[in-house]
Amino acid sequence: MQAARLVDRAAPSGLRVHVSGRIVLFITLMVAAGILLAAGAMLVPIRAPLLPAPERFRYLWVAVAASLAVIAVDAAWIAAMIVRWRRHPQAPRAALSAAGTVYIEDAGPRGPRTWLAPLAVLRPELVPARLIAVTGATALGMVIGATMLGLPAWAIVSAGLLPWVPLMFVEGIRKYQHYGMYALFGAIALLQAGHLGEHTVQVIQVFVFNGDLSRAHGVFGQLDFETVHFLWDGLVWIGLGALLLRFGTTNRWLWVAFIAASFHEVEHLYLMFV
User: Fold this and answer.
1) Residue 64 and residue 230 in contact, taking contact as beta carbons nearer than 8 Å
2) Hey, CA dihedral for 14, 15, 20, 24, is it positive or negative?
3) 40 burial class (0-12, 13-18, 19+ CB within 10 angstroms)?
4) pTM score, two decimals?
5) DSSP codes of every residue in 148-165
6) In this structure, is the dihedral angle defined by the CA atoms of residues 240, 77, 238 and 262, taken in order, positive or negative?
7) Per residue in 230-271, pLDDT tens?
């Protein structure tokens, strides 16, 4: 019965074009970001030093070397994926089929629970609710205390995050034991959400301070130097490569993220050397 239902839903019934809601959301966000950047480029004067012509191409060879290094590593990841798929050709299909079965049984093809299902992995499994409430109250008290002491913004935010570190560590270990690579997937997504938030604050500061880059370092301005950026983005790039080994055949967005991370890594390799 379940197999027949799957076949009926997969059978074509005339020419219909269905656009995924996620794609629409992604395109909308990209257009909004493009409009914001275009407005910033036209309305906010950025005072950046101009390099003389001889200096502009002085380190061109570094950019070429960085590009070749990233291409070589990406090729190694792709080769490893091909080898893995050839050794276990049914594994990705079985995983996708199982995911599709749960998808239909739990929420239907377009039910509201489908969008919320991925968030289920974030629910606490080991830490009790009482401890979460106590930690939240402690974090709030530390934020209030840091604010009353007149500490800078980065110290206030750090005070609010610090009590959550032990709980996140314990839950992270539990998630990895239970979900495996899915836990790594979630961790990278969560950390990158924080990374995006920090850069969003920097862009807002550029607008607020009328292009004064010396005052646009985000909340954690003390960490806004190239070594931190290089290590962070390099680990994200490598982590995405590891995720491709497991989910490369079932998640096209991982390929988009991996390609973007590769271009980003070329930039930071260049900046780290120069």
Assistant:
1) no
2) negative
3) middle
4) 0.65
5) HTT--HHHHHHHHHTTHH
6) negative
7) 888 888 898 888 888 888 777 888 888 899 999 999 998 988
